[in-house]
Every structure is written in C-alpha cells, then in structure tokens.
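In this section we walk through a basic example: taking a raw amino acid sequence and producing a predicted 3D structure, encoded as discrete structure tokens. The instruction is simple. Fold the sequence below.
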Amino acid sequence: MVFAVSLSSSKNSVAVIGGGVVGAAVAYTLARRGVAAALLEAEDELALGASGTNSGILHTGFDSVPGELETRLILRSAQLRDAVLDELEVPVLRCGAVLRPATAAHAANAHLNGVEATLHDDVLEIPGETVTDPVAYTLSLAAAAQRSGAQIRTGMRVEAIAREDGRLRLGSDVVCDVAVNCAGLNADAVAHMVGDNSFAIYPRKGEFFVFEASLDHILLPVPTKRTKGVLVFPTIDGKVVAGPTAHDQSDKDDWSVRPAAGSEVLDKAAAMLPALAGAEPIASYAGLRPAGREGANYVIGPSPACPKLINVAAIRSTGLSASLGIGEYVAGLVQRAGIALGPDRPLSPGAVPRSDVAWWRRRQWHR
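The resulting token sequence is shown next.
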C-alpha cells in the first residue's frame, strides 16, 4: 500500500514511523480525528519488535510515580481502554493482580493515582490489572485506523528524512506535513536523520519462561525504580509465564535468551507460585525494550532540530499500557504543529480474525 502526498495537497498529512503498539495507537487516534495518516513499518508485519514480545499485561498505574508523564499517560489509557478493547474485540483476561509483600505506602501510591487497590495484611489486591494479546491489540488498533482512512505500509524502512518546501520527505515516495517518530529501538536513528542527537536508545532485554500451569491472577513483586521485577502471570492461551529479566545490552539485534536468564527468573517465580518449583519451562523467549539513557524515558515532543518531527521515544515496557494515552497526547502535539483535527469519530468495530490465539506466542518462541 502506497502513501504519497503531493506537495500541492492540503496540509493535513502525518506519517507515523514504526508499527508497534504505540505507532498503531497514534495512527488510530489521528485517523479517528480525520487526519490523513499513514503507518510506516520497516518489517513485513506489524508488532514484530518490542510490542510482540511484551508481557501483555495492561497495567493500571497503581505503582507508578505520581505526576510523571509516564504515569499520566498510563492512567489516561486506563480511562480509554475498556471501550476500545470491547469495541475492537481484543482478547483480554480481566484477572486482577496481587502484590506481595505490600505496605501501606503501596496502597497510598495507588490511592494518589486514583487506582482501586485494597491492602490485606501484606497483600495488595489490584482488580483492574488485565492481560491481553499484545499483537492482537496492535493489529486491532491498526485495522481500526485503516477503517477510519489511515494507510498501513509494511516493508517501508525510513532511511532518510529531508526537508522539502516546508514539509518532510521520508525516502523516495512519502511526503508529509508532520512525521511522528515511534520507531522503538531505532527511534534515535530516526532522530539523527534530522540532526537530532538529544537522546539515545539502548535495548533492555527481558527474558520470559513459559509453563504448562494454571493461574487465575497476576502475581507481582515489589517494583524498583529500574524495573517491575519478575512477574508470574496467566496468558490468553492458557499458559503461565514468568519474567522478565532486565539485562542492559548494546546489540539491538540480539533477541536470544541468555543461559544465565533461568537463574535470574526461575527461583523467584517458584517463590511466588510454588507449583512452578522444579517445573520445566516448555519455551522461553526474549524481548528488547527501548530504554532511554540515564533514565530518560518517555521522550515525547517536537524534535529540537526539526519541529515537524515529533519524537515518541524511549517508551519502555509500559508502552502497551500507556499506548492510548500516548496516542491522545501526540494528537495534541500534532495539532500544535499545525495539523487540523476534526471531531472524534465513533469507534469502528471489528475484530482481527484469528483462529488460534496462541499463534503469536509460538512466533515469539521461534524467533
């Protein structure tokens, strides 16, 4: 599918670079506001990067730092999400979560963020935590964007951005008024194309182990500033997954599971769910989250080198949870960049057809 805007066309076109869940949510939001939008993905399919190897947990933001941009976007997404999940028929497990050992401070943080949570002794119950299929979620958003007029173009790797008569040319055949950089691990490389060296992305590897087991809710450890720690959670297709690790590396193409990952995950998982003690994983997989240097995550705003490029970068593992809020926030930035937004159109129902909900996990296992 080709998206090419002539220089004489009306100035209301946006190219979204990156077909993960954040890019799909941005395209979805813009298309519903009547913007001529295109979603450009370098790979042959959407969600082959960090989005497809996300845990699939839709967090409420109960443990996020109050007032931070990341927290605000997670909380806003939670307000928007149920209607979108239902209308687009995205598979979900509304299973809730428990955090142990919890303190009154954890409950107070949830209260500050307006998230329902109940403390019983040292156990915090968070009923709003949910599990989804992150690939189905991404594909559903992209399909809904397409039904609302957006164009989806896979196999479109942006290798150069040129300024041209007040607009941007991306490669040879894409001309737009504003570009949104949702390129995940390669967001810094996209920014460099306009001379923007204001941030750097490195891959934080998260390794997961899959078990044949049963679990009816998410088990959470006490999070740290760096990571949410090792979780144990059920999946849409009836498995149990433990992870992730948080291994910082420099290679953006190394998706392998390290030999040391098991020792970093399995004992912790068994302590949370004793049924996993001694159990052999049936599979493992790894995802690379786009982390910002020195904790500079959620870098969202116009590029200081080129205001017509809006960076949406260093969106770490919470990007799935925050995606709808990010889409809304970026739509406001696009409007401030001179793109007219129409009224919000009604949701466009329609599920992504899948005969087997386990398809995406098998793809992860065989990376």
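Looking at the output, two observations stand out. Residues 1-10 have pLDDT under 50 and may be disordered. Residues 69-87 form the longest helix (19 residues). In the next section we compare this with other chains.
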